[in-house]
Design brief:
404 residues, alpha/beta, Aspartate Aminotransferase, domain 1, Aspartate Aminotransferase, domain 2, 2 domains, eight-stranded mixed β-sheet, three-stranded antiparallel β-sheet, 41% helix
Length: 404
């Protein structure tokens, strides 16, 4: 067996399952899960129609590069969204969701033969970053988030020796779990570091279309263009339809950026067998070409967060994020910062599932920046999320009363 597999840690949801094993939920309440970030709004009919209308595509092997129509449609979306022009032949590549692409990109980029090969990623983080780095033969350096800056990643403490060995940097904007959006100054700093040390930046942007302010989040390609980096040197942006269009089961997204990176990534994917199904491509064309369903989806999240956030903020340290569909809340002092116990006891008392924040981070340099927090995915309908929030309030108030 590949010995690197032994370095992988249990996935957060496996840890959550073990935490809740043996817990008897209070059956007086219907179960509500805020644990997994799986979109549950209705899949748009136009995407379903495109799927069923393209079943003849099952008779053909797909090409890894994808059909020209799909790449042109993605090019048009990038133009509308970011006012950028990219080459659909050399700077865009369809992928089977951003998750598999994040993993595969690391296998393409990392040279494990170089001593000290390092991947930098945020902490808390999306666990695929770590797994991709470890299985590519690299070490992982976790950069903590700054709670005082809405959990923006703080790169100021990264030693020069670490930067010198870094081959790949994962960024996530809007971030998971806190929803922070990177600004142009931060991008400028990272691009300067990339130029100095030669590492690739993988920009995970799968939450970019769920935001709560009038101005949409800045994207990595957009930031590069604003800084006159029109060749997108050493930058790959990744996104998917899962959150934008409520199709997590479609497994469809794209990467875009530096043509010098897209070319070897295409080669890797050709051998890995990562071509997108023709019927998924047809559905993806329909999805990327339509914005009306995205606007409606965003409106649903805005209305939901506008109701849920004030309910929870009465008893918890929690605030509306910049973007995304998570609330990243501090466990009240009465729980002694034990996020796992909070999750377990909430399930037992009120049949609501939340994810302990420590499961989304790593103990690194003596601390776990996710400890003492919980992540709540507001993916269900508004009424269910409001009910869950009300139960959490009751749970906290009851606990505080019993300990006073």
């Amino acid at each position: 067996m590949n010995p690197l597999l032994s370095k992988l840690q249990p996935y957060p949801f496996e840890r959550l399952r073990l935490l809740h094993a043996g817990v008897a939920p209070n059956r007086a309440f219907k179960p509500i899960s805020l644990g997994i970030g799986e979109p549950r709004h209705a899949t748009p009919q136009l995407i379903k129609d495109a799927l069923t209308g393209s079943l003849a595509g099952l008779a053909s092997y797909p090409g890894t590069l994808g059909e020209p129509l799909l790449r042109q449609t993605i090019q048009a979306w990038i133009k509308r969204r970011y006012d950028l022009t990219v080459d659909p032949a050399t700077q865009i590549l369809p992928v089977n969701g951003s998750r598999e692409a994040l993993f595969a990109l690391a296998q393409t980029v990392i040279d494990p033969g170089k001593p000290g090969a390092t991947v930098i990623c945020p902490n808390p983080f999306y666990q695929i970053y770590e797994g991709a780095a470890l299985l590519a033969g690299a070490d992982v350096y976790f950069v903590p988030s700054d709670a005082a800056r809405n959990f923006a990643v703080d790169y100021s403490g990264v030693p020069e020796a670490v930067w010198a060995n870094t081959q790949l940097l994962f960024v996530c904007s809007p971030g998971n779990p806190a929803g922070a959006v990177m600004g142009l100054d931060e991008w400028k700093t990272l691009f300067e570091l990339s130029d100095r040390y030669g590492f690739v930046i993988a920009s995970d942007e799968c939450y970019s279309e769920i935001y709560f302010r009038d101005e949409p989040p800045l994207g990595g390609l957009e930031a590069a263009a604003l800084l006159k980096r029109h060749d997108f040197k050493n930058l790959i942006a990744l996104t998917s339809l899962s959150k934008r269009s409520n199709v997590p089961g479609l497994r469809s997204g794209f990467v875009a950026g530096d043509a010098a990176l897209i070319k070897p990534f295409l080669l890797y994917r050709t051998y890995h067998g990562s071509a997108m199904s023709p019927i998924v491509q047809a559905a993806s064309v329909a999805a990327w070409a339509d914005e009306a369903h995205v606007v409606d989806n965003r409106a649903q999240y805005r209305a939901k967060f506008a109701q849920v956030t004030p309910i929870l903020s009465a008893v918890m340290d929690v605030a509306l994020p910049d973007a995304g569909f998570y609330l990243w809340a501090r466990v009240p002092e009465a729980f002694n910062g034990d996020d796992a116990a909070f999750s377990r006891d909430l399930l037992a008392a009120y049949n609501v599932v939340v994810l302990p924040g420590s499961y989304l981070a790593r103990d690194f340099h003596g601390s776990n920046p996710g400890a003492g927090r919980i992540r709540m995915a507001l993916v269900a309908d508004t009424a269910e999320c409001v009910e869950a929030a009300q139960r959490i309030v009751q749970f906290i108030q009851t606990h505080q009363t019993s300990n006073s």
